[in-house]
Every structure is written in structure tokens, then in C-alpha cells.
């Protein structure tokens, strides 16, 4: 489900998770702080190339995953692209309604594109970590960074319950579909409501069973898993340095051209 299947199949799955977390952190911070369109583009391309070439994820799959948040970002930045302007303002595209004009100016277009690309750059960096690192490895690194134990355990339990709920929902939906539960608008409403109610009940029952199991095994203490022996992350560290150098080079080139 989601990025988890890519993480376990990745060629970087057994590489030190600290190195991959460092790559994500460095590229994300630089993408946000340097605030240049060229830096955002370089971040997307560099993280995409690392995920595809080093991790072994298919380019088509990475592109498909990246298009999901891209649609939301475009919708979210429509209010930046489109604005209300005084008469006489030069617009790339627009219409006049009453005493004002509504449309897209060169400045708003640049600002909207910059925000979209910067957000996609951050998402690409996060995808590099998520599509190459299993969740258990990420939580292990968070423990080493002394993140509060309660937060780490909540992350682990919530992450596991996502899969439990998804599997339960899939089984109920399949059973409803086999009985023509989604044939017609009325049946769709009825089946969807039943699915939501049953999913809540099943989730409640499952959480009770998990809580009882944890208590019977001393649930007052932390939930620990065996640490894995990881391969050296030297190549990933070198890739991190190369990505950061490309980001700085893109920043200097854009600022130099602007000057």
C-alpha cells in the first residue's frame, strides 16, 4: 500500500537510514531557504534521479506519485495566480468585470509557479526517503535522535492501523460490490454509509484487541523491534553532497543572471 511496497523493494532498503534522512533534510532545507525556481527544479530532478537510479523505482511510478500532490498544489495556488487588479494593469490573461480586472499578471504567474515548484521539490525529497526507507527504519532513526518515545510509538501504531483499516475496507467493499451494493445512486449512498459504520466498529474492536495484547505483554513499556545490520551509506552521502552542490550552483546562476 502507498510507498511502503516501494520501500521494501528498493535497492537502498538495507542502506543506513541515517544517510537517507540526511539527504531528505539537506535538500528540503536548501529548497525552502534558497527560494529559487531553478533550485526547486534541480531538487525535483536530483531526487527523482536518485530514487529511480539508486533506488530502482520505475520512472513511471515516481512520476505518477508526484502527480498526486501536484494536482492539489495547483488548485491551492489558483488564488495566487488569479487576482483582482485596477484598470490599466497589464495582465497575461484576464477579463474586466465592472471597475476591476481579474486575471494573471507576470508577477503572479512567477510567484505561483515558484510556490508550486518549491512544494514539489520538498515532496520529491520526502518521496526519496519514503520510497527507499521502510517505516521501521525511520522510527529507529527517530529514537536515535531522541524524539519522545510516545510520539514514535504513536507513529508506529497509527502507521500499522492504516494498513489494517485499508484491508478491512477493501474486504467490506468487495463483499458489497459482489452483491451489487453500488448499483444505482441510492445503493451507493446506502453502501457507503454502511461501509463507514462497519469500518468504525471493526477499527474499535481491533484497537481493543491490540491494546489487550500490548497490556498482556507489559504494554506500559516501550515497543521495541530488532535493529537491522545496515550497509554503509557512503554513496548516499556523496549523492547528498552532489545534490547540495547542484542546488547552490543553480541558486548562484539564477541570482547572477538576475543581477
TrEMBL record:
Compartments (UniProt record): Cell membrane
InterPro entries linked: ABC/ECF_trnsptr_transmembrane, Cobalt_transport_CbiQ, ECF_CbiQ
Record's keyword terms, sorted: Cell membrane, Membrane, Transmembrane, Transmembrane helix
A single GO cellular-component term on record: ATP-binding cassette (ABC) transporter complex
GO biological process terms on file: cobalt ion transport
Transmembrane region(s): 21-54, 66-85, 105-129
Domain of life: Bacteria
Topology of the protein relative to the lipid bilayer: Multi-pass membrane protein
Protein name, UniProt field: Cobalt ECF transporter T component CbiQ
Source organism (scientific name): Butyricicoccus porcorum
Taxonomic placement: Bacteria, Bacillati, Bacillota, Clostridia, Eubacteriales
